[in-house]
Design brief:
The structure is a single chain. This protein is mainly α and about 130 residues long. It has one domain. About 80% of the residues lie in helices and about 0% in strands. The chain has 8 helices and no strands.
């Protein structure tokens, strides 16, 4: 209501997209790109099906799709893919497979809900998506 009242709703979505997308890339994606074999090994050791495919899909979900979210490019699709990845990281990997305490998968779940929110709302006015709509 307040965002709509003051016309800042789209600025909030821009801020959410840029901060969540860049943080995901910097904190989680870059390391996996730099040493993909280590991540593939971890996924293999954890018993994920099709470990190499699973690992590279996760790497894309933590680098390519967040970059698309930052740009506001195919935001709903990109955010849905990133949300699925964060659900798998948080619930399947940290909670079920590793038995980690909540503090270890809290970040993954926060990202999950941010990306679900962007899947629902879309990118907003300040985005590549909006340029193609007009």
């Amino acid at each position: 209501m307040i965002g709509r009242l003051f016309g800042i709703h789209d600025i909030g979505l821009l801020f959410l997209r840029v901060t969540a997308g860049l943080t995901m890339i910097i904190a989680h994606g870059i390391g996996k790109i730099q040493k993909p074999d280590g991540f593939v090994g971890l996924i293999t050791d954890m018993g994920f099906p099709l470990p190499k495919v699973s690992a590279y899909l996760a790497i894309a979900a933590e680098t390519i799709f967040p970059l698309m979210i930052v740009l506001g490019l195919l935001t709903r699709i990109s955010a849905a893919i990133a949300a699925i990845n964060m659900f798998v990281a948080g619930i399947v990997f940290h909670l079920v497979m590793k038995g980690d305490p909540f503090s270890d998968y809290e970040k993954a779940m926060l990202y999950f809900f941010i990306f679900v929110t962007l899947t629902i709302t879309g990118s907003g006015k300040y985005s590549v998506d909006k340029l193609f709509k007009n």
